[in-house]
Specification:
66% strand, mainly beta, Lipocalin, 9-stranded antiparallel β-sheet
Length: 109
């Protein structure tokens, strides 16, 4: 299953929903990506795909400095799971891959 593409995420935190965009790509045979939210762009680290399960880590500075770990399950063009930031409780994550332009295909599909 290919995860390559741009994903719109919604993270339900105790202080409200946070919208983010995650871009996943293959670079020299390695899965990598970046996340964008609130004007901040951060690299994803330890990106790992195992079947339909995707995990990654990222460091954010807004609204505070946190290391966040994501663990989601993929189902076609949707993802659901959780993220955990430090000692805070886990937050629910949902995501949807953006549609591509007409005639384009996702690599690996």
């Amino acid at each position: 299953m290919s995860v390559i593409g741009v994903w719109d995420l919604s993270v339900s935190t105790p202080v409200g929903k946070i919208k983010a965009v995650v871009e996943l790509r293959h670079e020299q045979g390695v899965l990598s990506g970046t996340a964008h939210s609130g004007g901040e762009k951060v690299p994803l680290t330890e990106v790992a795909l195992d079947g339909d399960r995707l995990a990654w880590k990222q460091a954010v500075t807004e609204p505070m400095r946190l290391n966040v770990t994501f663990d989601v399950t993929l189902d076609g063009h949707t993802m659901t799971g959780t993220c955990k930031a430090g000692r805070l409780p886990a937050s629910r994550v949902t995501g949807r891959r953006r549609a591509l332009t007409a005639g384009a295909a996702h690599p690996g599909e």
